[in-house]
Specification:
Length: 138
């Protein structure tokens, strides 16, 4: 039985992560989901949140946006619109993005489609803030 699985995280801009890992925790649309080697094959949606990679007993935390994951017995392929490590997150910019988006939601003439886009932007910014601030609360 394999003790690792291949994790590939791809965004429209780049390959954000590619390595053999022991485990990955995903923010799946149905809830947080842990994946070990030999996991049952599955395709599901990813929502904005924290993705945690365990390799060599150490954890790496990434903020991810919306997308999909395909899981096979020995590989996890994540396709998302954003994937940022804690080091790559600009906390001040994420805070400002949340404030701007919340202000936009309060405006009177915002349509349903734009409202959904603004809420998605808020979710991605909050995911970034969660990952960036998680060490402070530990």
């Amino acid at each position: 039985m394999a003790s690792t699985l291949r994790l590939e995280i791809v965004t429209p801009e780049s390959r954000a992560y590619s390595d053999d890992v022991e485990m990955v925790v995903l923010p799946a649309i149905e809830g947080e989901m842990g994946v070990y080697p030999q996991h049952v094959p599955l395709i599901t949606a990813i929502k904005p949140g924290e993705l945690v990679v365990t390799k060599g007993g150490k954890q790496t935390h990434l903020a991810v946006g919306e997308g999909f994951v395909e899981i096979t017995g020995d590989k996890v392929s994540v396709l998302v619109d954003m994937a940022l490590t804690e080091e790559a997150i600009d906390e001040k910019a994420a805070e400002e993005a949340v404030k701007r988006a919340e202000a936009r939601l309060k405006e009177e003439h915002i349509g349903d489609e734009e409202s959904a886009l603004v809420q998605a932007a808020i979710a991605k910014s909050l995911a970034q803030l969660h990952v960036k601030r998680r060490r402070r609360s530990v």
